Amino acid sequence: MSKKNLLNNKKKSHKLRALCVFAPIWAVLVFAATAYAISINPKDYLIGGGIGILLYLSVLLITVLVGGRLDSKRENKKSSGIMITGVMYEKINSMKEPAVLCDSSYKIVWANRFVHETYQGTVIGASLQLLFDYHIKDGEIGKRPKDTIVPYKGKNYIVDEEALKDYDKSYYLLTLRDTTELLNLKQQMRDEDKVVAYIIVDNLEDLLQFEQERYRAAANQVESYIREWGKSVGGLVKEYERDKYMFIFEAQHLDKFLANKFEILDQIRDIRVGSGNIPVTVSIGVAKVTGSMEERENAAHIALDMALQRGGDQAVVKFDDKIEFFGGRTNAVQRRTKVRARVVANELISLMAKAGNVLIMGHRFPDYDAFGASIGIARLAMLCGVRFNVVTNFKDVNIKKCMKFFEGDDAYKGVFVDAAKGLDLVRSDTLLVVVDVNNIQMFESEHIARNVKDIVIIDHHRKTAEFEKEPLISYIEPASSSASELVTEILEQSLPLNALQQNEANMLYAGIVLDTKQFSKGTGTKTYAAAMHLRDNNASYETIQDLFKTNIKEYRQESLFGEKIEIYRNCMAIALNDKGADGSDRILAARVADNLLMIEDVVASFALVQIDNVVHISARSNGTVNVQLILESLNGGGRFDAAGAQVKDTIASTLIRLKEAIDEYINPEV
Fold first, then answer.
1. Which of 84, 100, 96 is nearest to 174 (CA)?
2. Angle at the Cα of 390 from the Cα atoms of 388 and 391, rounded to 5 degrees
């Protein structure tokens, strides 16, 4: 039976009940009228009958009218307000906020008094979507986020949904709660929420250590920029230590800083000092997180540390669920002091002495720098008298060459293990020392890192993300030439004279030579000091030359890159090798990237090689382009002038993404 017929039958039943109620009254009246007519005059039957008929029709009319009004009132509550009856109906109908009932086709079948008065006309039959800009799908009732906002007549409402059933049909009751004022208050609280930032001048003291008379003038100029920046947003700027500032401002201004990519970095970079006209740079750590002021201050410190570990000259903004980076377009300046190396050495020795055993590893596809730094840390573990192992990949071509240096050396017997064996050696008191990498996804064994409680990281690559597990020591110096240089400094502060073996010194020396391209780039006074220390421990360039020689197969494979070379943007060289490459071509790609920098007008180079389903990218720069920033968009990393990435994709698609990353770097506003 249809709903319409059902409602008609209900109406008939109401009228029949009404007739039954008034029937006795009608019968008494007709009988009285008839008796009266008979008693007066038998001839007046017609008059009595007429009076009876009139009385009957009158009662019938009254019955229909009264019954119809009762039916109408019942249907208004029950049929129009499907399943909304009694007190609830009156409550919803008298609400001072919108309430509507729609059917399965999202047509409004009932609306409360507020909606009718607001529209001053009928809304019955109107589309829910057109009226409220609101969508409902079967199965989603009650699952929509409770803070879903619906605009209605210039105000904002939150919708409460309820699914109703009437026989075989579905209906949806929507009641709207006015949250305009509440939302405005929440927005005001968000705007006025406090953001904590730390600002530190990266290199002013190092740049001006020989020009003391100009130090204060440059420092004052930097401070003037920072204070004007704070004043522009009504913030609070306090210098808590020389060339170090705390900046507190309202959150509503952070969007402006994000939009202009922290232009304060560019303003301060325009300050030039010294005979080399070197720019002054600052690092900024910003915390836009929830919690107490103490928690925000700690988060700002973490963001600042990350900015410094990425080389400085940048702003790092830490949110509750993500981190954003801005700047980082100048190379880091190497610090001359070895104070931090001495502190790290003491802390590392203390941790090793307490550990049950020490595991040492570098990055996947290790090079001489990763292996040499691992050997240096192994020597430090020997000094501490703790059991240690170096986790490495015996199948790697580079490792096979390096292992020959330690054949027959009893001190290293059983020291080298693969990742599976290293995982078996993990204990509750194991200390893991990771060198030449800070991204856990690039560790030699990610599983070991996730199962070890205590980790130390020593690296010269820029930090790309927040650590999943906070290390006990995080010694990251992007200004250093290599991890081998950092480890050599630690050993210089720790080992007795002549305690470093010749083969160990040779491996550390090979790491420095590799990453500096034979001392032709990325070097500083500390680099040469580390090299001199290794030479004093009998390191020999002639001995390590065999590590850098290539065979005829590799020489021919390298020539394949030359078949597809493109000069992109008139200054970026890109070379491809997509012809049957193997693991050795990854090493050749780095060599090709170095050689491409020799092309006239080329300031950065990229060599791509497809090995199985992974595209390996090696990038190099002449020091004017930050290739690490470019490859970060491809989940890569590295240093300012040398970086790499591994992309699981085709070489054609990877090339498109690489060009897009280059375009973004050159024209960040586009």
1. 100
2. 130
How confident is residue 613, by pLDDT bands cut at 50, 70 and 90?
confident
Q: Rounded CA gap, 443 and 591, in Å?
A: 22
- Rounded Cα gap, residues 370 and 361, in angstroms: 8
Query: Is a pLDDT exceeding 60 seen at residue 37?
Result: no
* Backbone region of residue 277 per phi and psi (left: phi > 0; alpha: psi in -120 to 50; beta: other values): left
- Residues 312, 284: Cα–Cα separation, whole Å: 8
- Which pLDDT score is estimated for 433? 97
For the chain, give the percent of residues with pLDDT over 90. 34
Decide if 521 contacts 405 (C-beta within 8 A). no
Report the predicted TM-score, pTM, of the whole model to 2 decimal places. 0.63
- Could you read off the pLDDT of 197-250 as tens digits, one per residue? 999 998 766 656 545 667 777 888 899 999 999 999 999 999 999 889 999 999
Based on C-alpha coordinates, what's the Rg of the chain?
A: 41
Side-chain half-sphere exposure of 655, counting CA atoms within 13 A: 19
DSSP letters, 55-67, are HHHHHHHHHHHHH
CA distance 379 to 499: 9
Q: Are strands 99-103 and 108-111 parallel, antiparallel or unpaired?
A: antiparallel
Helix then strand then coil, % of the chain, to nearest 5 = 45, 20, 30
Q: What is the mean pLDDT of the chain?
A: 81
56 CB-near residues (< 8 Å, 6+ apart): 26, 29, 30
What distances in angstroms separate CA 316 from CA 114, 161, 311, one per listed residue? Answer: 50, 42, 12
Taking residue 56's Cβ as centre, other Cβ atoms within 10 Å add up to 15
The whole-number average pLDDT for the span 312-318 is: 89
Give the three-state DSSP class for 196.
strand
* pLDDT tier for residue 385 given thresholds of 50, 70 and 90: very high
- The one-character DSSP state at 443 is B
Backbone angles phi, psi at 587, to 5 degrees: -70, -40
Q: What are the Cα distances from residue 142, in Å, to 146, 159, 163, 172, 325?
A: 8, 10, 8, 11, 39
- The whole-angstrom separation of Cα 273 and Cα 279 is 7
- For residue 614, the surrounding DSSP H or E stretch is strand 614-621
pLDDT digits (tens, 9 = 90+) for 565-606: 899 999 999 998 877 656 566 778 888 888 899 899 999 999
Three-state SS for 360-421 is EECECCCCHHHHHHHHHHHHHHHHHCCCEEEECCCCCHHHHHHHHHHCCCHHHCCCEECHHH
